[in-house]
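Appendix B, Record 12. Input sequence as logged:
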Amino acid sequence: MKRLQKRLTLASCLAAVPFALFADQVTISSPDKSITITGELLSVDDDVYVLDTELGELRLSRSATICEGEACPAAPANLEMAVSVTEADTTELLQALVNGFASTQNLLGLSFPNAGGGVARVELRDSTMTTTEGNVDITIQPAVAGFEQLVAGRVDLNMSTTPVPASIADQVVAAGQVDLRDERRERVVALDALVPIVHPSNSVRSVSLEELAQIAAGRIRNWSELGGENAPIRMLLPAEGSSLDEAFAELVLEPNRVRLRRSAERATSESQAASEVVSDVNAITITSLSGNDTAEVLPIRQSCGPLAYASDFAIKAEEYPLSQRVYAYTASDNQTAAQSNFLDYVTSPDAQTLIQGAGYVDQTIVTQPISLQGTRMTSAILSASTGATLGLVQNFAQDLATADRLSTTFRFTSGSSRLDTKSQDDVERMVAFLNSDEARNRDILVIGFTDDVGRFDLNERLALLRATSVRDALVAELGGDALAGRIAVSTYGPLAPVGCNTTADGRESNRRVEIWLR
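Logged structural output:
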């Protein structure tokens, strides 16, 4: 859903047939009243107002705005939604998003706790807090159970840090139902990461994924084995069966072919694990970045050399090796207008500040000059196996010497040049950013990269194909035609890797398209 600011910027004359004709003056404003526009309401449907104004004919999002005037339609039906989440921390994110959405409807959110102290329900109340205008019921359960509840129609939304398992998605498709993996059903709401944390006084300053696996298995037992003090390691593993536990197994244990010892100590929750680490100088645990307290986050020492830090930029670019997405899945084609508006809201620009405030990484696009990308330049030099490729690395550095990289990185479904679901949403954000005052006077470089598997020339060809598909998607988006003359497409193939090509996850990270401004 395009938001109000973008509608005002990209407004154009439309020839749509009105849904209903009004010929009355109304005032449309953003929830905080910082943007207000008055005009004649020509038509309205579940998604947009069409307004005749001094700027011309505008289409404005209903979910992003407030309509005032006698001709304004009745507010959408109350928001009634049952939501499944995989972690207690995710309920805080959901609570923030529901409260933010309520404010766009001139409502207030009132939260009710569950037995464990989390949020079980958020009621949407009017300004007097006496009338209930909607309810969002929240349950916490394992990811697979959440997907099963979603498919069975017992919940309307499933929020998970785990993508829908192929076995479940394929089973649903085979039964003649929807594909949960398509862009209408799978949304990326926020970003997060798994991070190893230790006491701030611990002298160990980094750890590899292999070492994490060996610690978890009890094969590394003393901090001195990692260059630290001569003291026993106390490893607290995530709660068994939690999404954090599953992610740790998938990203750390399984690639290193490690099984946990039965006597392994487990935390009851992320908050309990973080609290234990802060109070025990010899403790280490794995938590989400959003669930960390005041403990020290250790960077990941990659097998090919460079350290990977869990910075906002690295997580937004999904180049930190333990990055995670927070997904929101729906299964029904019969959502109410209020449910549809809420789903539009959670990925909107208005929601990004709330996501950041809840401790997650938002999807707002930010820039970073090449001078702050020393890690990738080190990787580029280390990966240059011949004098010829080292010369190409020098060309890469010279070409981008005055350029800034954008945090959004486009990725593809495996073995194809088709954008994945997050990248499809990123196209809209990117076009809005590239048309903004911050970027509108700069050249746009769309650069394709690959892993190092196969011939260099074939990798270059594939990277160029993917970069071209991103360029085409940007130009085809609303407002993208204005970018066409500013875009240059190029490729550096396997040069400047952001992950280690010796691992499957590293190779996947390296298959990407980056956007730079110069």
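The first helix runs from residue 4 to 10.
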